[in-house]
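Researcher: Next entry in the queue.
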Amino acid sequence: MSSHEPVDHPDDPNAADQARPPRTRVLKGAYAAFNQEFSAIPCTLRDISATGAHVVFEGGWFVPDRFMLHVDIDGYKIECERVWQRGSECGVRFIGEKLVTGKARQQVLTPEPYADESIAVSNARSRPIFGDPAAPRPVQRHRPGGFGRRTR
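Model: Structure for this entry, 152 residues:
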């Protein structure tokens, strides 16, 4: 299939007549493998459904008509066919079965330190105030001249 024949393009007026499976908005890193999976292009999944996905490719890569989409965070790969392309974005249709490549990784968000304001306020009081004459001064060591430094 060539890139001049959009099949399921979002701007296609006939696409409204066809029932589409629900899409889920995602932001997942992936890569498109081609050339018998010896070559790969990094990409990002923007939305996904049971039958296809919206993929954004990094840089100005040429996107092949058929490739294997690897989604490491979910631990699978699936064969895809490009159905439309606009710049670095394209829509793909899944033409194969999901193949498990490994264990899906768990995405974990860790809270920032001092998320509780009472801890941050108590620690802020124990730090010296900028410009406080009673605060201890850092020890200044003489550094020998070197690359990029002016020597006297």
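Model: The chain has one domain: 1-127.
Researcher: Noted, moving on.
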